[in-house]
Amino acid sequence: MDTTYEQPARARLITGDDQELPVPATLRYASTDPLAVCVDFPPEVSLDGQGVTWTFARALLEEGLRGPAGGGDVHIWPCGRDTTVVEFHSPYGLALLQFDTSTLRAFLLRTYAVVGVEQEDLGEAVERGLDALFGNV
């Protein structure tokens, strides 16, 4: 059975002049893509007026809650006891967001209730990906 878990989250966008702007987000996990987590942002906070979704490894989120982690487009690190920073890189620039660590940790634990660590069935996910790639969907 395919299961999706979504959790609202409040983020704070750190601007170039060190202001913090509140940004709504939705943390999302789907059993159909068991190794990934998503952060969805609504259209009103994007540059082009379209919703934005960032998808990255669930293991990266777990690692980033403990210490600096990431490479490429997504970097995550703890900032004190109560805050976790998530940095997104795109061709249009950089977004630096702060989340409450407790919110991210609760979300991560709930994803493990959907699909446990080392319980991910990659065969099914690979089949779906190949079907989508070759137009068999």
Largest sheet: 8 strands, antiparallel
Count of strand segments:
8
Output the number of helix runs: 3
Which blocks of ≥5 consecutive residues have pLDDT under 50? Answer: none
Shape: globular
What's the structural blueprint in terms of helices and strands?
Elements (H helix, E strand, L loop, with lengths): L3 E11 L5 E11 L5 E6 L10 E6 H9 L2 E3 L2 E6 L3 E8 L2 E8 H14 L7 H12 L4
Antiparallel strand pairs: 1-2, 1-8, 2-3, 3-4, 5-6, 6-7, 7-8
Helix pairs in contact: 1-2
Structure description:
With 137 residues, the chain is an alpha+beta fold. It has a single domain (4-133), classed as Roll (Transcriptional Co-activator pc4, Chain A). It is 26% helix and 43% strand. The chain contains 3 helices and 8 strands. The protein has helices spanning 58-66, 101-114, 122-133, and strands spanning 4-14, 20-30, 36-41, 52-57, 69-71, 74-79, 83-90, 93-100. Strands 4-3-2-1-8-7-6-5 form an 8-stranded antiparallel β-sheet, with helices on both faces. Strand 6 and strand 7 form a beta hairpin. Helix 1 runs antiparallel to helix 2. The longest helix is centred in the last third of the chain and has 14 residues, at 101-114. The protein is globular. 15% of the residues are buried. The mean pLDDT is 88.
